[in-house]
Amino acid sequence: MAKTPDWVLRRGSAQDVSAMAAVINAAYRPFVEAGLDLPDVSAGLSEDIAAAHVWVAEDTSGLLGVLVVSTRPPTAHLMNVAVAPIARGRGIGGALIRHAIDLARSSACRNIVLATHTGMPENVALYEKFGWQITGQDGLRIRMSRPCV
After folding, report:
1. What is the pLDDT of residues 100-121, one digit of tens each?
2. How large is the C-alpha radius of gyration of the chain?
3. Among the residues of 1-149, which ranges form H helices?
4. Cα–Cα distance list, 81 to 43, 50, 126 (Å)
5. pLDDT at 4 over 60
6. Residues contacting residue 98 through CB under 8 Å, at least 6 positions apart
7. Residue 26, SS3?
8. pLDDT, position 30
């Protein structure tokens, strides 16, 4: 369990599914309200927990962020990062992304990939800040990758 001054990072559990879905749905709500056609962004959490792909950030008030990452060498896949709107600006998103990179590296993955929506340019900019590069685009989906070494 990683600890910061006012919140902790731990593995997600089956008891967290409802709270995780609420955080994810709240984080994506502005994009949905802006008219972006997104898939069900909180689907499959129980399966992801069973596969040990989920991490959560929490403090005494509850869940603040969710990370879903698969680390199967040679490539890890950052599947979802979401921060509760009330927790933005506390460095939680960056910490979750760094944790995903560290997990990929410690799992002997050579690179980590993700996909984001073309209507989320701020996400692309954030991932580029953390070393991802755009590798392609399929319709509304931007594919990105970064090395783990």
Report:
1. 999 999 999 999 999 999 999 9
2. 15
3. 17-33, 45-50, 92-106, 121-129
4. 13, 18, 12
5. no
6. 130
7. helix
8. 94
Q: Which amino acid, one-letter code, is at 126?
A: L
Measured between alpha carbons, how far is 54 from 119 in angstroms, rounded to an integer? 25
**pLDDT per residue over 38-56, tens digit each?**
889 999 999 999 999 999 9
Burial class of residue 71 (count of CB atoms within 10 Å of its CB; 0-12, 13-18, 19+): buried
In contact, 112 and 100? CB cutoff 8 Å: yes
Residue with tokens 């993955």: 109
Entry pTM:
0.93
Phi, psi angles (nearest 5°) of residue 54? -115, 135
CA dist 131 and 144 (Å) reads 10
Indicate the burial class of 132 (C-beta count within 10 angstroms; 0-12, 13-18, 19 or more). Answer: buried
Omega into 147 within 30° of 0, i.e. cis?
A: no
For residue 74, say if its preceding peptide bond is cis, omega within 30 degrees of 0. yes
The pLDDT, as a whole number, for residue 109 is 97
